[in-house]
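Researcher: Please predict.
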Amino acid sequence: MTIMKIKNIFLTLAVAVASSACSDWFDVSPKTDIKTDDLFKDETGFQSALTGCYGNMTKDKTYGKNLTWYFLEKLVQRYDDGSAPFAGQSEHVYDYTNANYSKGIITDIWNSMYETIANVNNLIARLDKNGQEVITTPGSWELMKGEALALRAFLHFDLLRMYGPVYKEEPEKECIPYRKEFKPETSPLLSASKVLELVLADLKEADTYLAQDSVNWGNDAENPFKAYRGHRMNKYAAKALQARVLLYRGGSEDLAEAGRIAKEVIGQCGLKLVRDNFQDIAMFDETLFALHMDDMEDRLESYFNVSAADDGSALWITPTNAEGAFEKMSSMVTGTVIGEDAVKKYADGNMTYCCDFTQDVDTFTFDGSTISGKDADGSELFEHTYHYIGMEDIRGLYIYESDDADSGEFTYFWHGSRHHGDHMA
C-alpha cells in the first residue's frame, strides 16, 4: 500500500473532513501494547517495538482501510452509489451524528492515530533511557530514533490535515494536541501553526539521526532489519515529508525550501518514475515510503468483489462514470488558446489548460527559485528568479512572479499542488 511516491512529493491527499472534533476525543489517554520492561532488554525487543508501530498503522481504523481506500475515499465520492435497495447509502457518510458509522469511524481514526503515537513515544523514551546500552549493532540506535521521530511527525501532520482548520484561513486556530511524551495526562490543544512547527522540529531532528541511513531498497539477507527501506520511514521519506509540510505551510521561504529538498530527494534517492505498472503493479520502484500488509488481498477482496454487491458492501465505479471522469480530466488539459485570447475566453474561471510549450521552449529547469528554459538545440531562451505572490482561488494554484521586469510571457509561474503539471503564463 503506497503512502508516498516521488511524483507525489508535492501532492497532498485530496481529503477534507468537514467535521470538528468533539470534546470527548481530547480525553484519550495513551494505550499501548509496548509496555513491558522485558521487551526492551535487548536489541531484538527494540526492533519488535518499532515494527509494532508500523503494524499498528496498517489496522483498518487508519491506513489499512479508512485513511487510504475506504472512508476518506467515500468522503470525496470516489465510488459510485449502490443500486436499490442500497441507493442513497453514500449519503450516510456525511451524517456525523451517527455513532454507528461516520461519527464512530472518525472517533476510531482519532483514537487509533494517538494510540500509535503513544507507542512511538514509548519507544523514543526507551531508546533514550537504555537503548544505547543494549542496541549493539552500529548505527541501529540512530536509525530507530530517526524513524520514530519521523513517524511521530507523519502521524501528527495527517491528524492536522484531517482535524485541523483550513490552514490558509485559520493558522492560529487551536485544533489538536502534539504528544511528545508517553504519559496518561491529556495534552492541550495547539494552534495549527504550532503543530506544524513541532512537526518540522521532529523532522529536522530525525534528519540528523537518519543521515547515515544507507537506504537499501532491496533485500539484505545478513541484516534484514535494514532491508527494504521503502517499507520504513527512511532518510528520503523523511526529507520528502519535510517538503510536503513546508509546501502545506505555504510561505515564500517555505516553498523555496520545499523545492530544494524535493530536488535533493529526486536527485539522490536512486528511484525512478515508473512508466507503467504492467510489471510493477504497486509501482514499488518509485515508492519512497509504504506500509506492508501481508494479508492485504484477503482484507480488500470482499469490497471489490461483484458478489458483494448483493449486500451493498461493494465499492465500485461504473464503466460509464469511469470513462466520464477520464474524459473530463483529459479535456482540462487539451486547450489550444493562450495569452489574452485565453483570458477573454475563460473569464468565468472555467478554463482548459494548454499544455504545449510556447516560444520554442523544449525544456524547463527548476533550481530553487530560479526557472530557466531551453530550446531543442539546448540554447537558453530565458532565466529568471521568481517569488511567491499568492494563491489562485478557483483551483488553489500557487502563483509566482518573476523578479525581472522584462520577463514577457514568462512573467508568472503557476504551481498546482493537486495537479501533475506546472504552468507558465
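Model: Residues 1-34, 84-88, 417-425 have pLDDT under 50 and may be disordered.
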